[in-house]
Design a protein that fits this description.
Porin, single chain, 118 residues, elongated, 6-stranded antiparallel beta sheet, 0% helix
Length: 118
């Protein structure tokens, strides 16, 4: 099992309320997860890894109108990832990872895609 921490920072967005009025504000998305996977050594210094697991994703929405406040929601979502790594030395690897999960707040849902290196 491998722990995963994710932080998508913040971004602007909006939606329509159940009453049909539009609103806007700032989303903040973060979470953590656990994955299991398999690493395939396809060349002497190169490997490809695939992982799958679950992520607990917390989404907070701060309304542009400060009088309205904020809303947050934590959901459990599937988490999938791929990684390509190169062994620089026998004890050090350089990798490029791509992971995808989802976020949700109110009726707004969307993909959360992460690109990382290590």
């Amino acid at each position: 099992m491998q722990p995963v921490w994710l932080d998508a920072g913040h971004f602007k967005g909006g939606d329509t309320s159940p009453l049909g009025t539009e609103f806007g504000g700032i989303f903040e998305v973060s979470g953590f997860g656990l994955t299991g996977g398999y690493r395939w050594e396809f060349a002497p210094s190169w490997s490809l890894a695939g992982r799958a697991g679950l992520a607990s994703v917390r989404t907070r929405f701060d309304y542009a109108d400060a009088a309205v406040g904020s809303a947050s929601k934590t959901t459990t979502q599937p988490l999938l990832g791929l990684g390509l790594a190169c062994a620089i030395t026998p004890t050090m690897r350089l990798s490029l990872d791509y992971d995808v999960t989802r976020f949700e707040v109110h009726r707004t849902r969307g993909p959360l895609q992460m690109l990382g290196n290590c």
